[in-house]
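Worked example (supplementary).
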Amino acid sequence: MPAAAMPAVIAAAVLAGPVQATARVELPAKTPAQVLALVAGSHVQKLSGTLEQSASLGLPQLPDLGPGSPGSSSTSTSPATGAENTLSAANISQLMGFLTEPHTVRIYLDGAANQRVQVLDKMAERDLIRHGTTVWAYDSAANTATELSLPNPRLPKAEAPKTETPAPATTPKPHSDIARPGDFEQTPATLAADFLKDVDASTQVSVGPNTKVAKRAAYDLELVPRTSQTLVGKVSIAVDAVTGLPLRVTVTARGQDKATFELGFSQLSLSAPPASTFLFTPPPGATVARPAAPVPMARDAVSPQVHKAPQAHQAPKVTATGTGWTTIVEAPAGTVPASLSASPALAQLLQAVPGGYALSTTLFNVLVAPDGGVYAGAVPLAALQQAAAAK
Amino acid sequence: MFRRRRTWAMLGALAAIPVLIAVAVRLTNGGRAGQGPAFLDRITENGLFVVLTALVLCTPLFFPLTVGVVAGDSIAGEAGLGTLRYLLAAPAGRVRLLLVKYVGTAVFCLAATAAVVLAGTAAGLILFPVGEVPLLSGDVVDGWTAEGRILLVGAYVFVSLLGLAAIGLFISTLTDVPVGAMAATIMLAIAAQVLDALPQLAWLHPWLFSHWWLGFADLLRQPVEWTSFGNNAVLQLGYLLVFGALAYGRFTTKDILS
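After joint prediction of all chains, the assembly is encoded as:
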């Protein structure tokens, strides 16, 4: 009998091992304004961390057939071609990979002038390294390196605090180095109060139960849209209790109880990464490209900001209607060429609906009208069809 | 086990894989970037990539195949030959026999990995230039550091096979027909990889023993990403404990008739 019981005991112990008890996180209570002030006053200059991104948007998923399958970076076009400015079938399969597959990104920061972002793919990696005014993009699958010089060599002073203001519906970019000079004149507290006043009409801001992200205690700032006309149910931002650094952004679609989109740190260390991390020389044998004009694509390709990706390809001529959560972004007729509408990659992604083809997810909808116009927003499909019909 | 000709034949076949890759690439002057198995296009620049290409090829198929044969044969083979009861007649005990058989299988896992790593390194050194090695992150390290990384990858692959070896040992205690145990073990390895490829079963993936098999690429990043090594080791240890215990439960209560 003991011989038969032993496997059961060990199996139970092994299964129970990963299930960690979720202890309550004790932190001094804070109001939303105080948490926002904490974020605004945050000046994290040095960190190395791992970001995990996952999304369950209800899109069709394809079997993952290893390193060569669509969605992994081996199908990506060479950065030097600049093909990312137009929609192509390869782009669409890449975009689909962004939307459906989980990603792991490692981030290294040291001051405002040194950044490195590594997108960890299967058997491959895409890197973006900034050291001073030099930016290198490296894609290990294609073995190509692209060097860019920043057009404006305005080096922010090392001691200037980095300010990040969380805005609803945008994911904060922890690797962002955009310092807003105007912000420094205000204190974090007034900035937070102003922000709360601005968003109050459209959004209910509250502080949820404290959480733990990457082993750090964090406040959970919850933004709930006041309108029911949007697909977004809740956006919660976990804010590090010590430094005020946003650690995790979770977007939950209306009517869902599990996160639809999540981007957050799984590991975080606030010490400076070794200086060699930011020094890059292309490896021997790599194809090196040095485009004359800076191509904004490189940041685009590694940016975890998937929401903006569909619009990023047609940056000009895009207009927005509506306000707040129900904003609809429109690209004019002819944005999607007719040849592309018929392509199998697009047909796989889109479904025919009255008034065009739609990409329908639990969090946002995209409508491609028959004339090639594109409508997108975190709103029900019917609202997009109305907007298209009103044209 | 190492006195059997079959074991040496399997190790020889495994060692031939990197050699074949190296010779084929040498004769055809390599492929285009981004084509074929990972790292294949880098071989002409640096011979050490022969090892990595061979490991990418061997991990999903050839390693499970050979480990399945050895593990499936461990107990059932003795039973099939009719020697099991003689082994147990000696005052050694069933637990000890089980342990010895598992250690033997683990030694084979180590030998199989070592065969590919050593043959690949040798073939790469002979046929291709070796110098500074670019990692996946684009950073360049010298040949010795790279060889260290490759040994780490070898250790990763060895650890990856331990779970499958334990499963094979358990299956081997269920039957007196060694071929059946081998086939079942190999089928399980393939089934686990098929399940791992279906996104609809994402909740199951972290529990599959094959889930981290190809995660050794994380050891080739700069700095090294240890998460997958740790996850893999914990997972394989879990499989080792569960299936080791199952094998113990089965083998100590079994009537040995052959």
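Two points are worth noting when inspecting this output. Chain B touches chain A through 39 residues (CB under 8 Å). The mean pLDDT of chain B is 90.
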